[in-house]
Amino acid sequence: QVQLVESGGGLVQTGGSLRLSCTASGRNLGTHAMGWFRKAPGKEREFVGRIDYSGSGGRSHVIDSVKGRFIISRDNAKKTMYLQMNSLIPEDTAVYYCAADSQAMRPSDEDPDFGFWGRGTQVTVSS
After folding, report:
1. Distance of CA 105 to the CA centre of its chain
2. For residue 95, how many other CB atoms are within 10 A of its CB?
3. For the chain (length 127 residues), average pLDDT per consecutive 10?
């Protein structure tokens, strides 16, 4: 059984930074792609970015609206993925969720099937 737990959310002013963590327990997810999503009030859940496992290149990418501000990284020894968020703006206010691909060692040219989810952490950016 896999459990993902997010932490690091909170209230921050515009222009501030936060680092979210997603720690896994249970199955070793070191060979799974992982991702971040967010859901703002009144909006659909939005994909933020993902990071592949090292065997498929270990590359990360984020959506255009956060490019240059958000960075995804992972430390497999700590079973933790991170989302470094800089230059935060009110539009970033949302509940942030981490997720992991259900399949291990998926090639990077395939889209992950995010079957494992955390419960989310609230990020609020004040203007």
Report:
1. 18
2. 18
3. 96 98 93 97 97 88 98 96 98 98 92 96 97
